[in-house]
Fold this protein.
Amino acid sequence: MYILQCWIEHPVRTLDQTFTYLSETEVLRGCRVRAVFGVKSLVAFVGDCAYTEETRQQIERRLGMKLRMIDEIIDERPLITDELYEMALWMKETTLSPAISCFAAMLPAKVKPAGGERKIVMEKYVSVSDTETNLTPKQLSAWLYVQEHQPLLYSDLRKEFPNQARQLVEKNAVTVFEKEKRGSVKFTAGTDEKPQLTDLQKKVIQEIESSADTVYLLRGVTGSGKTEIYLQLAEKVLNEGRQVLILVPEIALTPQMIERVSARFGSKLAIYHSSLNPQEKYEQYRMVMNREASVVVGTRSAVFLPFENLGLIVMDEEHDSSYKQDSQPCYHCRDAAVFRAQYNHCKLILASATPTLESYARGLKKVYHLIVMDERINQTLPSVTIVPMRQSIRNQESYILSDALKEKITERLEKNEQVILLLNRRGYHARLRCRHCGEVIRCPHCDLAMSWHRDSGKLKCHTCGTEIYLPRTCPSCGSREGFMPYGFGTEKLEQEVRTFFPSARILRMDADTTSRKNSHEKILRSFADHEADILLGTQMIAKGLDFALVTLVGIINGDDGLARTDFRSCETTFDLLMQASGRSGRSKRTGEVVMQVFDPDHYAVTAAAAQDYDAFFTQEMHFRHSGQYPPYTYMIAVTFSSVKQDETLQKAQVFKEGLTGSFKVIGVISLLKTHDLYRSRIILKGRNLDEMRAALRDMMAANPNLLKGIRIDINPMYLD
């Protein structure tokens, strides 16, 4: 008899413990089983499995409780490897999340605990059987074809021999069996052009290879050749028979990275990102588990793939907020990557032109091995023009495209070069305000203004996705006087560009134009092939992209992010400006950047224009120190959500009063309603993160009735 300790699928904090079951057969740790919990049959993950000579009655007598047998063993081999199991328990402790939610975060939807009923897509295959039978000449040809190509997809046999395929099955000349569907994901391989390394690139590679350190922070200006360094290091790791993981923050960055990686290393490549459907994700997961993939390019969740022999991890654009998970468990991909690098005794490279202040501070303190690349491969940074928009508007210029930017766009188009225009807001108008009462149209489910989208003719909420037609009367006062538009997005920008440059070929890339499958790749491929002159879009085009003919980048409302009340607003603005500037002049042609801003003297703007990370870091760290913000302190945001506002306020107040320690507790703060849920928040702020975690654990253990709707975010990226 085997005694199993199982994690039940309910991600409820009060059930965050293992439950004991019995099994007649051994079940490996990390396998899924089905067992009755209460009155329901649920999926569970096996933690420990211990053999005993005792009978069921003896075990129950010794433990003092009745035990159930498991109903079914779902997996023959563990979905959660030993490494991932240890990682899940580490995440549980560091993010203060239920263990089962950590297991679920690691798995593709097809095999998540709550999604266990989703069917894996199977395909029919055939192989020749041992049955002797009389075959016609055509049937014999079909049988020989199967013998030569077995195992053969039955659909392929029917294509080659449409009449004989069924006859072979009926005569038992071939055996029909099912296998999990594979190969749904297709990608375009690039052509391998291994460039000559610069002296600086050679020096960086030699420094990484000769050091025994685990984590490296590679701060390199845009266009310094960081990607080629990854590929050269990956090649050596692959030659040793180990696996490589390359992480990118957004789907928009995967096509170019996939093209370069596949060109260098061939077809042993897996791709893992959110635009894959559940079946495709499952197939890629299996490829990694079965060692059929040596290199993986993926976004945040790829850090949980079941590698067996990981030899190198690269985290490109490590500063990007997309690496932080919003829902429980609120993990940061960087922390998970550090865990895996230490577990596998392999190197982790965190790379960015604009590292987070936390990472750069760790680099300066030698917690990370800091390497700086301050030269572009072409030795030339783009020239930058700052356009103060207040003055331009006073001069009666367009409030969207200044005369200076229009003039430079004209020059580039005449030279048959390409232009990128960045505006980090989608839609046509940012909001509509009633002409009578002045109220904006808000989402019926969120306390947020809805944006007008001309393409669809609807108002959209960019938080919950709700869409409505423009109301005839004001929802607030009932007036029929109409609405005044305020602000503009990429749709309006596109219209403006088409008006001023009617002969230019234009592509728009934002969340609205990339909703279809493979749309990111199609847009970027089209622009790379010079099928368009101007690419405009949101922040997804601001980083990581490399186009040889782009010689002008225009940044519209470049300092818009400074209006946010969040403590990271200056950092995110600087990142966006500097990263976007880096898309210009990356080849032999000289690049230019035009930054249209309303506060041209702000240090985030001037430092970005000068491509001076050190100057920004110094200035911003003064601000962080005076306000005691990260990296000088740690923060934990504890948010309570409910359909009743009073309930969230009450829970938050109880938590605040019950927390004691050397840290500060800030709040209670009422947040904007989203998804029909009222939210209240408290913030813990202090220098001892372990103490704050322990205080929250004790508080949750003492108040299990207050845990419904709680969300804990350790070191949150944003607070506004």
Q: What stands out?
A: The mean pLDDT is 91.
